[in-house]
């Protein structure tokens, strides 16, 4: 099956004229909208294979703040620092990766508010399970959603700055994070040396990197979760059983990922907004 990341652009890039969500929202006014976006995104990936991972991350970051209202696309102004310029969003950018597909509900308006300070509500790479559960619950998302959506880390990579602290001087008792597989830690130390001067140095979030599969969970079970927010899911009884289940059954992951994405897309749907003429500025 084709992992339909392209449909995320329907939520992010197209200005909408209603607040009632419907998978067939454009059936009469623009029935070919998904085909058009599919072709556009597919062509983009012929030039950059990382497009799918970037779209997925942008979708999450947009929806987690004020809902999926494309506020993450707005530029900063002299009087306002926008979401895209929040520190956690510096690496955001906008195919066939394999994986599940699902119907995307359409009908959102574009937001008029975008504030960098609100990016502080996004889950962080060093958050523990309790912090992650709290962040997701604030958006009406369950523990199951947390573990399932974390599987989006099957795509993409992370820079050394997000995980290097796990490799050296981790605590007074452990030089290296004890939850890290020692062999994996040694590999990461080579990628991120003490005197690293490359700001782009980093590692894939899972071994496959650009393929959508359940390898992310398999690596967590083996102590190879790259980020603390990944590996912590194995150490908490509220999430461990599901990590282990998804590591064993890829079909289960594919079955649950689409519905979890729909729930994420439904966060904060609001009738206020506009049909934005330029995705980077309010009308």
Tally of strands = 2
Instruction: Give the count of structural domains.
Output: 1
Q: Calculate the mean pLDDT score and round it.
A: 78
Shape: globular
* Side-by-side strand order of the widest sheet: 1-2
List the helices and strands and how they pair.
Layout lengths: L7 H5 L20 H13 L5 H13 L65 H9 L5 H8 L6 E3 L22 H10 L10 E3 L10 H7 L6 H4 L5 H12 L1 H16 L18
Helix pairs in contact: 5-9, 5-10, 7-9, 9-10
Note the main attributes of this structure.
283 residues; mainly alpha; two-stranded antiparallel sheet; 10 helices; single chain; Peroxidase, domain 2
Q: Please, could you describe this protein's structure?
A:
The protein is mainly alpha-helical and 283 residues long. It contains ten helices and two strands; from the N terminus they run αααααβαβαααα. The protein has a two-stranded antiparallel ribbon with strand order 1-2. The N terminus is likely disordered. Its EC number is 1.11.1.7. This is Peroxidase. InterPro entries: Haem_peroxidase (IPR002016), Haem_peroxidase_sf (IPR010255), Peroxidase_pln (IPR000823), Peroxidases_AS (IPR019794), Peroxidases_heam-ligand_BS (IPR019793), Secretory_peroxidase (IPR033905). Pfam families: peroxidase.
Concise account of the structure shown:
By secondary structure, this protein is mainly alpha-helical.
